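pinned: reference chain
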Amino acid sequence: MRIDAHQHFWRPSRGDYGWLTPQAHPAICRKFLPADLAPLLLDAGIERTVLVQAAPTAAETQYLLGLAAEAPFVAGVVGWSDFGGPDAAARIEAMANDRALLGLRPMLQDLDDDAWILRPSVAPALDAMEAAGLRFDALVTPRHLPHLARLLAARPGLKVVIDHGAKPDIAGGRLDEWAAQMRAIAADTAACCKLSGLVTEAGGRWSEEDLKPYVDLLLEAFGPGRLMWGSDWPVVNEAGGYAAWHSAAWALAEGCTQAERDLIFGGAAQAFYGLAA
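pinned: its structure tokens
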């Protein structure tokens, strides 16, 4: 089963996508819905997707769950919840009753405190996630990795996937420190990683050669069984589009066997999110 492990839908007129403005993101500041994605999936041979939140509101999560119910190719939703509130655990427990909810994603990259996820006030929410079997999508950048490593060490029972390879600075050519941190996390924990978002970090004009050192590192560190391909559509439209990134990722995995490619482009996501065949 071919799976896109990371895609979005949104309708800016809903009003809770504060980051999505015509000035900052002219190419994607419009509605993107299942009918827009369906032909791209068909062309790429993708059968299922994981729909991921893009606004820090409970209302958007409900909106996405509604879209998922209408789109047969959506396998489930990674939503959002306020982890810091006094009733966080109860809310997460209630949200987990919806079988389409696969996990949660606090938008860590946008928070002022890089170590926010380690705050004691957040612990009840994480406890509730573990108890409910929800997955944790870690939207982080390299500066968050030391704190993420501490979280993973303290919570081996929490199923965590690192979004977008932790957003390495590909455009700036920075590799070594990020690589060392990712190798350590992969070696010391059971975390998985998404092979997604890299073309955005590479900038508008990228080549497979630009991406190769970063993809090779992720393959080496996490292995095909813990590395899952995602489009990050429609954000990927800012850096070449769905087909270009899918084709590049497939080519960059040319050193893998067919069985290993099957894991990267489906099996790893199926196992991590617990998706039915």
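why pinned: The chain has ten helices and eight strands. The CA atoms of residues 13 and 31 lie 8 Å apart.
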